[in-house]
Amino acid sequence: MDRSRFYAALRSRASAVFGTSLSQTQVAGMEVILDAGQRAGLPLKHLAYALATGYHETGGKMQPVNENLYYASAARIREVWPKRFTSIAAAIPYVRNPQRLANRAYAGRMGNGPEASGDGWRYRGRALPQLTGKENYRKASKLVGVDLVSDPDAANDTDISAHILVEGMRAGMFTGKKLADFGATNSAGYDYVAARSIINGDVRDNGELVAGYAKTFETALREADYFSQAPLTIPAEKRFETPKTIPAASRPPVPQPTTTPVTKQSLWSVIRTLIAIAVGKFAKGA
Questions:
Q1: Is 0.90 surpassed by the pTM of this model?
Q2: How many whole angstroms from its chain centre is CA 65?
Q3: Which of 44, 122, 179, 236 is the most exposed place for a label (fewest CB within 10 A)?
Q4: Across the chain, what does the average pLDDT equal?
């Protein structure tokens, strides 16, 4: 796969995702996802959809993020969680209080304890796929070989996050739906819209949107001549040691030296100048 061509395609005016520029952090984030996808042997359309999901769930940052639970309006809280807040009045105490809101909104489900347990906040959305709920953290722990239940913030490690995204979507960890459930892999017919249900049941609201992103990433992967490979078996102790690399075209320019190299001639010139200055000052003092 020619990654420079992949990024060039994403920067083109025809791209529907990043516009015409990519930041260092966006490129670094995609590098880790591409590495994880290639290690897992993902077919082209599966990798395109994993990238699209990462793009959607992080707001285009392509880096692990914490769920934003800061709401300035009780009406908006009620709109997002109508079953949890049966009236606007009931939502008012949770305005501008993300920790209290998380504990209420996620209490008693997804493996979380009651509101007072603090599980809602402890296991709020993290990482590229917005991993949420104690049970999902437990499943992800088995998947990546890291105890995310005891250390949920570890889900935001870039390598771990990418592994959760790719392997979680491949295995159907989030909703029971997996990448292989939605049709052909490298040919026409893959249902990008319905594939939204791999992560979230909001297909009606976001299925078409994420499908559009996936088509853009698919085009870029084709431009880069991406071909899937056999999945690699990586020992658990080595799983997250793959170094992150950024294509040369995306690296910042290396600063060039601006000083003149010191030679014997230039050194003697400096010494003579200093002697002359010292002599002049002595003469004035005399």
A1: no
A2: 7
A3: 236
A4: 84
Residue 40 CA to residue 101 CA, distance in Å, equals 37
Contact 230, 41 (CB under 8 A): yes
Distance of CA 171 to the CA centre of its chain: 19
Say if residues 100 and 27 touch (Cβ distance below 8 Å): no
Instruction: Return the exposure string of 33-47: e unless at least 16 CB atoms fall within 10 Å of the residue's CB, then b.
Output: bbbbbbbbebbbbbb
Instruction: Enumerate the domain spans of the chain.
Output: 1-63+137-252, 68-124
* 83: amino acid identity, one letter: K
Is pLDDT at 156 greater than 60 in this prediction? yes
Contacts of 188 (CB under 8 A, 6+ apart): none
In whole angstroms, how far apart are CA 73 and each of 69, 79, 84, 96, 231?
A: 12, 10, 15, 8, 47
**Separation CA 105–CA 266 (nearest Å):** 72
For the stretch 176-181, contacts whose Cβ atoms lie closer than 8 Å and that sit 24 or more positions apart, written own/partner, are: 179/42, 179/46, 179/49, 179/50, 180/46
Tokens 């893959």 correspond to what residue? 190
Any idea how long the chain is?
Answer: 286
Least confident of 57-71, 82-96, 132-146, 243-257: 243-257
Structure tokens at 49: 């959809």
CA pair distance 102, 100, nearest whole angstrom: 6
